[in-house]
Amino acid sequence: MNIKYLEKSRLFKLDTNNTSYVIGVVDEEGFLGHAYYGARIADDDVSYLMRIYENPKVPSVNNRDRSSFLDTFPTEFSGNNVGDYRESAIAVTDKNGASGIQLLYKGYRIIDGKPGIKGLPATFEGESKAMTLEIDVVDATLGIEGTLSYSTFEDSDAITRSVRIKNSSEDAIYLDKLMSMCLDMDDNNYKMLMLHGSWARERHIEYRQIGYGKQSVSSTRGESSHQEHPFIALVGENTTQNTGEVYGFNFVYSGNFLAQVEKNQFDSLRVVMGIHPDNFRFKLNAGDEFYSPEVVMVYSNNGLGQMTRTYHDLYRNHLIRSPYLKKPRTVLINNWEATYFDFDNDKLLDIARTAKECGIEMLVMDDGWFGYRNDDNSSLGDWQVNENKIKGGLKKLVDDVNAIGLKFGIWFEPEMISPDSDLYRAHPDWAIAIPNRIPCRSRNQYVLDLTRPEVRDYAYNCVANILKSANIEYVKWDMNRQLTDISSACLDKDRQGELMHRYVLAMYEMQERLITDFPNLLLENCSGGGARFDPGMFYYSPQIWCSDDTDAIERLSIQEGTALIYPLSTIGAHVSVCPNHTVGRNTPFETRGNVALAGTFGYELDVTKLSAEDKAAIPKQIGTYHKYNQLIRLGDYYRMASYSKNNLYDCYEVVSKDKSEALITFVQVLNQPNMHSINIKIDGLDDNKMYRIEGTDEAYRGLTLKNAGLLIERPWGDFQSMLIHLVEE
Ligand code: GLA
Known about the structure:
Blueprint: E1 2-6, E2 11-15, E3 19-26, E4 31-39, H1 66-72, E5 90-93, E6 104-112, E7 130-139, E8 144-153, E9 158-167, E10 173-186, E11 191-196, E12 204-209, E13 213-219, E14 228-235, E15 246-252, E16 257-263, E17 268-274, E18 282-284, E19 289-291, E20 294-300, H2 303-318, E21 332-334, H3 336-339, H4 345-358, E22 362-365, H5 394-404, E23 407-412, E24 416-417, H6 422-426, E25 446-447, H7 453-469, E26 474-477, H8 499-517, E27 522-525, H9 535-538, E28 543-545, H10 552-563, E29 571-572, E30 575-576, H11 589-596, E31 602-604, H12 612-634, E32 636-641, H13 643-646, E33 649-655, E34 661-668, E35 678-680, E36 690-693, E37 699-701, H14 702-707, E38 710-712, E39 720-728
Parallel strand pairs: 21-22, 21-31, 22-23, 23-26, 26-27, 27-28, 28-29, 30-31
Antiparallel strand pairs: 1-2, 2-3, 3-4, 5-10, 6-7, 7-8, 8-9, 9-19, 9-20, 10-17, 10-18, 11-12, 11-14, 13-16, 14-15, 15-20, 16-17, 24-25, 32-33, 33-34, 34-39, 35-38, 36-37, 36-39
């Protein structure tokens, strides 16, 4: 890892172990250009890559064609309305109502470490070293200054980027748009990989051919969303898991985003990623600053698999702060699919007692314990325990559960307010709403205006007071609707466009407060399943409920897309009953367990109603979880076959960092008649080590397993699965 300024060629060069990123200062005016991003190169002068010696040449040579220059120059951070017609990275409205802006080079700093980003989650230096380049830019006409920040890490091939804007003029300006990154590069017939989905169907992998014009994924829903994900990758034509090029871009933010690829008239691409400009306008008074969230870029020329492992390691080593990151997670049972709203303390204690017999370690009480909430129509905001259900109060229930030998966890949805709640009757103005317009309901609820300090304090104190009232060791923080009616009673007229971003900042502030005040709490985020499963949330919680779909087969695709970027240790995954509540499918109990192993592992069912056979399987499943959890939490992930592509079977593997063991999961979704065994090439092993398949006499060298493969005999039946444990001899 290194960052240097090559003075003669006016180039900034950032090197990670295997990649280089080069920025150039060009011409007398100091245009900031992008020269190169890709596999590592030498410290040579590569300014020619910016094509500044070709027509139309730079403005000092040919100012007559300045617009042609600005519209073709691979810029590091595009301006707006002054000649570059491609997507702008920044847009402002100045005191005259005009919108031109062009940020030019001013100076730089190279610093050890990595500064945080005010109010926002961000990667940090952690236990290995980091280095940061800050390039100062300015629009002298407007008096707007900016800083483009880039960080590299000693142990990673990722590069992070963010932007800071300061209004150094004497007048207010409006920031209408600020992307966190802009990257211009030649197209190489890349495809765009995106993760799309819906409720209960999150993060399915999809490819699009990149055509001329703009193609994007985005959210304007106030959260990162079920529907589209703040991640895109440019993937080479022939890229596989192990070969070929891929550029990944992931946004460390939990609100509205835009990720866009634009192919222009000269077959160049411009990638931008940042807060979505829709419904966004931030007023900066003289001296005010605005911080953009961070983007994590990963380049790999060893296929998608290497990109995946780079993201996993970066997030484990430089983003997730929770003390639980490195600890085995408690095996929990959650009562949501077991009871929905229909429970009381007796029911929960029955579940707890049987769960204890099975080896389960924690009971989580989900939605429905507060106010008078017996369905999803009321009481959000009234966070007092419902003593008709929880007789004797919460402390008594928690003590009783603890006495059985289980820890206790609880569900909250602190960002919400039901129209039918005491809170709403007392403070109708606390809900986000447009004056004189009845706000749009979703799941019969409104969103609290957390940007108001008194609302934020109320919501936070509700959670904190409950946590202080009993021995509660886990919180599931849910968020079950997306934002509409964007308007705040406490923001000035010309600041209404700040609400969406301020909302995300306020939510982050609440979570920061929670983990500071309760440092031993295990926090699991959730949003109607996985609508806020993004790197921003990992700064606060080490795990996120991945999807409300607990069907083992649907989960294969959801978990494949999720694990493309995020470590398995972050993926909330539980075993539930069949027929599955979302899709009605019946799968073997064993397969449900094997699929949930590639996540945090737990149960979401009424254990008192299980068949004797399934119940008897739980202790064994938990034993398997404990046996492999360290490997799964900390190991390297390899994707070997994908049911979403072949429609038949799924296969993935986790290899320990020292390559002494590997766990392969094979799930046969559909059996085929009259077929022989399946050959799977096993990646990630040490070529020279001998590996024994645990429980057999078979042993093979890593090299053989990699190139010749392992034969997997098809199990009898659909939805069958197996775990194959390879152990170094
Ligand atoms: C969301 C969550 C579920 C459950 C319900 C409760 O949908 O994803 O796990 O907690 O809310 O209302």
